[in-house]
Amino acid sequence: MTLLTWISILLLAVLIFMVMRLHESAKRKIAIGAAGILAVFFLMLDQPVTNRQASVVEETPVKTDSSSDEEIVKLKQQLKEAESTGKENEQTAEKLKQQLADAEAKKTQDIQAAVKAAEDKMTKAHQEEMKQVLDHAFKQSQEKAEPVQAYDDSAGEPETPSDKPSEFDPFGPDLDCGDFSSQADAQAVYDAAGGPGKDPHDLDRDHDGMACDVN
After folding, report:
1. Is the pLDDT of residue 103 over 80?
2. Given a cut of 50, is residue 146 above it in pLDDT?
3. Where along the chain do its domains lie?
């Protein structure tokens, strides 16, 4: 019985006790009617709960050991034979009764364990289904999000002559040492123009093969 059933029984007993203490018949009739209505109300509330529990048990594929059923049938048969033979087998009958009670208790425990396993399996399946739904929703939200472009540190930075000395045309307009930001840039143009003996920009005035080293 469920909790609501016990509450109905307890409430009905209390009201019956109160009715017995009433001396006036009119009040007693009213109290009896109220007790009946409340008891029926609680029993109606309890009925859906009981039906749901029964449906869960009926729909759950309970698998128990068939040997326990065979053992119960065998014990019942032996008990029936022992009781029919008379008092000389009373001890045997008592022993068989105990064995039968143990077997039925074990079967009940097996059924309860099977029902619990089925409920746990249903709960786990529900959790896995919810996880798949959430993962799918998260994946869709990621796909719809706008891609973030990586910031390029080098973008927009002005190029200096020292970054690309090849931009200086060795055979273009005249260049002075002051046009270069470093001796290495001047040396690159000097070498590109032909080096010693071919110095159109006169970058190696001391003719030592080093451009703009003393100028």
Report:
1. yes
2. yes
3. 1-59, 65-142, 159-215
